[in-house]
Amino acid sequence: MDPPLVNDSSFSAANPSSYTLSEIWPFPVNDSVRSGLRLAVSSGRVFTRPESLEHSGHKDVSTAEESTVTDLTAGWGGARKTRDLNSEDDSSKMVSSSSSGNELKESGDKKRKRCGSESGNGEGSMRPEGETSSGGGSKGTEQKNKADPPKDYIHVRARRGQATDRHSLAERARREKISEKMTALQDIIPGCNKIIGKALVLDEIINYIQSLQRQVEFLSMKLEVVNSGASTGPTIGVFPSADLPIDVHRTIYEQHEANESRGSHPEWLHMQNCYIREDRFEGAKTRKDLAMEHQNAVKEALNALYHHPDDTVRVQADRWLQNFQGTLDAWQARSSNSIISAGFEYDEYTSIQCLHSSAAGLKKYVADNLLHDSSSNLETLIFCSQTLRSKVQRDFEELPPGAFQKLRESLTTLLKKFHKGPPKVRTQISIAVAALAVHVPAADWGDGGIVSWLRDEMNMHPEYVPGFLELLTVLPEETFNYKIAARPDRRRQFEKELTSQMEAALSILTACLNIIELKEQVLEAFASWLRLRHGIPGAVLASHPLVHAALTSLNGDPLSEASVNVISELIHHTASPSSGGISAQTPLIQVIVPQILSLKAHLRDSSKDEEDVKAIGRLFADVGDSYVELIATGSDESMVIVHALLEVTSHPEFDIASMTFNFWHSLQLTLTKRDSYISLGSEASIDAERNRRQHIFRPAYESLVSLVGFRVQYPEDYQGLSYEDLKEFKQTRYAVADVLIDAALILGGDTTLKILYMKLLEANAQTGNDFQEWRPAEAILFCIWAISNYVSVVEVEVMPQVMALLQNLPQQAQLLQTACLLVGAYSKWLNAAPASVSILPSIIRILMTGMGTSEDCAAAAALAFRHICDDCRKNLCGYFEDLFTIYCMAIDGGGGYKVSAEDSLNLVEALGMVVTELPLDQAKSALEKLCFSAASPLQEAAKEDLDKKHARELTVHIDRFAYLFRYVNHPEAVAAEINKHWAIFSFIFDARPWDMRTMESLCRACKYAVRTSGRYIINTIGEMLAKIQFHYQQHHQPCFLYLSSEVIKIFGSDPSCADYLKNLIETLFAHTTCLMTSIKEVTARPDIADDCFLLASRCLRYCPHLFIPSPIFSPLVDCAMIGITVQHREACHSILTFLSDIFDLEKSVNEEQFVRIRDNVIIPRGATITRILISSLAGALPSSRLDTVTYALLALTRTYGLRAVGWAEESFSLIPRTAVTETESSKFLRALNDVAYGADVNSLIGHAEELSDVCRRNRTVQELVQAALKPLELNLVAPVS
Predict the structure, then answer these.
(1) Mean pLDDT of the chain
(2) Which of 864, 796, 781 shows the shortest CA–CA distance to 829?
(3) 982, 1010 in Cβ contact below 8 A?
(4) Comparing C-alpha atoms, which of 423, 519, 527 is closest to residue 477?
């Protein structure tokens, strides 16, 4: 007998002491480090108890149940497989890349987008968040053409809790390339946010839209066939539904030819449905014959999907295959040893009949049998392996209790068969086995769990090692895969099991290192296991053969991707708190850091492959990110790392240079935040140490400013850039701006400004001091704009010269646009400048020039105009007439101005701020002029047929009223104007109440008038509310409700308004409750529901004496109960907030009579409300609403105590124990009971999340729970006993 391939070995315990930084990073690097690596073996275990896994999100059924069949691709010459990302989708938020100045409007228009982690310094940052990236595939994107089988199905490996995260934080941050609109599109397109690469994402979006067009055509033709079939005979279908046996009379192409010959629907795929009842099972065809036909149908569907020339056939084939994957039939395994047939004959199939019809049993042998069929092509193999993997992950609970052994045997046989490939098939089967391990306790795998079982299999069958290594690689990754429908307790237990088996896993990998051909695969598996919270001491890893192998491979050409992954994981491990921190991992750091630093020379090697340079840059960035606190001490050793990172930053490729941007940000935070120095004690010591460190790093940040400034320069061919390329360029500028902000926080804004100004002078001198080559100057002006918030308002050395230079710029559009933005950004400096009054006229002229240059430049100029009028309003009070002239020319388009209607609102806001600074008499006169200019076009329109006007012709002028009422802070003046112009407002109310856009604009103007004027508008408010009541009953505009809520907020406590407010409340709510008597009606009117319950919450807060005793209070609670499960986010939030406000009524109202009325309404409905809330936690609402639902349940429990706990117990008693066990429900009920007795409310949040995970683990369980709770079929009020 051959000796065993691998044996268990133990790690020696380490007893690390504290090290100094010089001991961690000894320089220079020598070969003794490499030669000192060895495997330490002893009999002692060194593993620490793993911490509980912290979950960052919840599993959504929509994600868990997504198709794994195909997405149709461009040209329809092939189909691209959807990448199966084993994690929740990470939505990346992008910085807007609009080319106009509007991208800077919100919140004073000087905010910056932040990085993934919020900075603690209170300053804005433009650092975009990191885009989820998936490595794990090959360096190049796999391509296909029509003749080739699909090749781009890539199993993406998990990393540190997020399966698509193959890189460090810095690596992810540099991949922030896509705009907010692109992100929104990715969320809409199924599976699109799992595609790697921007080009592929765009390709996927285009083809999805094309597929929708083709599906519309397909459905139209199908309807035509159905209609024609009603008179000519039986209906001809397309691919049969997945739960019906089929009878295929022709192959796809035979049917295609037949269609062409008869001239009916050419290139149309016809397959006849045979509706077979159970009493026909003993007919002419046996079960096996029908099953074989079903198997052939799968083959033909796949063939059509990949090769049929007709687009509609491809669409319906894709749909049919997706439906097939969702059925129990997809479970079927190979004929001789199938899961079902081996343990359950046909007459014993009753346990599965309860889930699906008996006809489903006819589709036996399909997936696994096709995998064993030697004639199956790659497309069929991939589909069937995906199907098995998907079913094991999601639907394992559907199998009978004794099916585990047969399933494991079947999957193991397949893994052995495909041990040499195809790799995609082998990966899918490996994932299926790993998912099985998540479901099944370690004891069922034998002593030592799945790793020991795997070791035994490898010992008995060494020829299958490649396949088993794939399984060993994916095992730890599946720990964090929330597509697996495992209970949270079982998932945590699986992580502990794997952690306890780490020793055996690394022993297997060490033994496999002897096989040279498998070295890369072994290192990938090692990297995968390092992501577990293993607790292996640094001293053990430092001398481990696997670490030595990875370090040795760093010197290969090309660079080993697997070795880079290993070293990256080791770096993160050494910095992880769960590993004991830096001091405990010092021996390992001493080994890996010198090896990384020895790669520095490769950064300047032009012959080096770009992907290799990226990998090296990634390692340097990982070192910087992980050890930033050590680096921040400023020791000589740490400065070696800093200089290496500057080398990466200086790389000409932006993708490589930007890997370090996250490090410079983290270092800035560490150097500036007080928490970094808290251990020093006294304030004097803290200040001294902070100043010392910042002084050390000043040269590095000065170099950084010079290194990144040139990257924002427009390319020479900027005019030929595509829309997407231009957005990408803007993202680059934002990223560089964030780095400049980091530098300004270390160097000081004034010092950074001086550096940039010297660059500006150099650029100007190189072009003959006339800025004829505008691109370098524009780039420096952009950099100066980026640091505007950090330049002192009293700076007098550089800014006056910059402002003087701006007046001599050529009228080039991009240059002038940046100049306008810069002027607006330094508006506070302009106000504080000693010569402000003399500078402002020339600045205004620059803005006027900008308004006439281009639309984008005009947008930037209007925005700057607003900033200047905001900050310099006192200096501009005497120039209102001149400003008003500019305003009139801009909105009328005179003088060649190109200010859009939207951007003109910036000018309205600007003048409104100046008017606010005027004395009341002058303010009234000025506001009258402004309002007249807005009212005149409306009055002219009223003389014509107002119904025929486009909404935009009216709203542009109404919105100007809204901005004036909002920003002119003179209540009397605003009240006078709204009273004066109420006639035209009233006329529009009566003329266009059906026009939502016009009504929203009009209500917005009224809202700001009410908010600013307060009681000064009392004479008009009655007529305004009468209009609202009348038109709401006719046209149901939700904006009427929102305007009413603003009125309630201002006048709710005013006794003089009580009568008409009470009438308003009862009228609006009575009509609304009639509109929403079912969840279907609430879903159809989400905006009304949202604004209705916002109004109701404000009534509780501002006028409970009018609302709670009213007859409408009880029906409105019923309406809220109906709408709890509405899927619209804002409507659902408003409803749950309203209910929570009712439960928490004592917090805002102390009157006993109101509490008694509340209890009389809520207590009879308490059981139903609780049941709906628990149903919402269990899947009736998306998991993103979990916090809001939990708080509502929490508020209910705090108010009604044990009675609410009893209501919850009644609800849980209805849920089958197969879905939620007694233990799981008891844990939640205990937490609820603790809250009722006053325990910490935060404890309920975790239990609610766990209950949600249990009930959402797969679609079958979720449907079972919802069917038991029936949240949409409940009587609202319980019968009185």
Answers:
(1) 76
(2) 796
(3) no
(4) 527
Q: Burial, 951: exposed, middle or buried (Cβ in 10 Å; 0-12, 13-18, 19+)?
A: middle
- pLDDT for 858: 92
Question: What is the rounded average pLDDT of the residues 587-604?
Answer: 88
For residues 178-196, one letter each, b for 16 or more C-beta atoms within 10 angstroms of the residue's C-beta and e for the rest, the string is bbeebbebbeebebbbbbb
Name the DSSP letter for residue 943: H
Q: Are 1225 and 1215 in contact (CB under 8 A)?
A: yes
Region 769-778: mean pLDDT is 79
Amino acid, res. 63 = T
Whole-structure pTM value: 0.75
Confidence of residue 383 (pLDDT cuts 50, 70, 90): confident
List of residues 6+ apart from 287 with CB closer than 8 A: 281, 346, 361, 362, 364
Alpha helices in 534-604 (DSSP H): 538-542, 545-553, 561-575, 581-584, 586-597
Q: In Å, what is the CA distance from 57 to each residue of 60, 281, 332, 1128?
A: 9, 47, 33, 20
29 and 595 in contact (C-beta within 8 Å)? yes
pLDDT of residue 241 exceeding 70, the answer is no
**Strands annotated E in 592-646:** none
Tokens at residue 193, please? 């946010």
Long-range contacts of 1049-1056, Cβ-Cβ distance < 8 Å, separation of 24 or more:
1049/1098, 1049/1102, 1050/1010, 1050/1011, 1050/1014, 1051/1015, 1051/1021, 1052/1098, 1052/1099, 1052/1101, 1052/1102, 1052/1103, 1052/1106, 1053/1102, 1053/1103, 1054/1015, 1056/1018
Which helix (H) or strand (E) element contains residue 273?
A: strand 272-273
Token pair for residue 176?
């922030």
What burial letters (b/e) apply to 573-603, b meaning 16+ CB within 10 Å? bbbeeebbebebbbbbbbbbbbbbbebbebb
Question: From CA 679, how far away is CA 185, in angstroms rounded?
Answer: 48
User: What are the pLDDT digits (tens) for 30-73?
Assistant: 333 333 322 232 333 332 323 333 333 334 433 333 333 433 33
- CB-based burial, 729-744: b 16+ in 10 Å, e otherwise: bbbbbbbbbbbbbbbb
Residue bearing tokens 């009534």? 1099
Sign of CA dihedral 791, 793, 797, 801: positive
Q: Token pair of 1167, please? A: 């059981």
Helix axes 311-325, 287-307, angle to 10 degrees: 130
- Residue 834, classed as helix, strand or coil, is coil
Q: What is the predicted pLDDT for the residue at 1017? A: 87
Does the pLDDT of residue 748 top 80, yes or no? yes
In contact, 139 and 611? CB cutoff 8 Å: yes
State the residue for tokens 């009070």: 877
- Chain-centroid distance, C-alpha 1261: 26
For residue 407, what are the CA distances in angstroms to 18, 348, 360, 448, 843?
51, 18, 19, 20, 77
Please name the helix (run of DSSP H) or strand (run of DSSP E) that holds residue 246, with its range, or none.
Answer: strand 246-247
Other C-beta atoms closer than 10 Å to the C-beta of 645 total 26
